[in-house]
Amino acid sequence: MSFSFLFLGNLPLAEGFGINTNIFETNIINLAAVVAIVISFVGKNLSALLEDRRKTIVNNLQEASQRAAEAQERLNIAKNQLEVAKKKATEIREEGVFRATQEINNCVAQHEERLSKLEEFKQETVQFYQQKAFKQAYVYIISRIMSRVKERLNKGLDATYHVVVNNFYVSRFTEYNP
Q1: Residue 124 Cα distances to 4, 112, 135, angstroms
Q2: Which of 2, 41, 156, 165 is the Cys-Cys partner for 10 at CB 3.0 to 4.6 Å?
């Protein structure tokens, strides 16, 4: 009767030890022996090594998760700072527009005030020169009248002039009602 060993072939019973020339069977037996020796001697070390590797991987994953959470938190902080900066920039822009508008209004008001002062000065200047012109005309007319009076006085008074002056005063007396 034959007994099958791992489907590798038929081994006769009770024949004892001998040289097995089937390379495939011997390789499997050798491999099984090596695996058994490795597992028995290296098994604990290998399982410890695998456990250390598992712990390292778990720690790396936890650290990566923690770093990701920290990065997310820093990102949120940066986003908040960006929003604050945008609000501040908007406020600064609005304040700049407000100040520019205010400055323009101040300049316009100052310009209008200067224009009104210039208009007032112009009116005063025109009035001054009008008064000066009237005064010069008045002085000229008075000087002409005075020169004509002097001429008349120097020439002497003739009879017709006496009659005109006397008639003037007589007419004034007749109009007088006390």
Answers
A1: 138, 18, 16
A2: 2
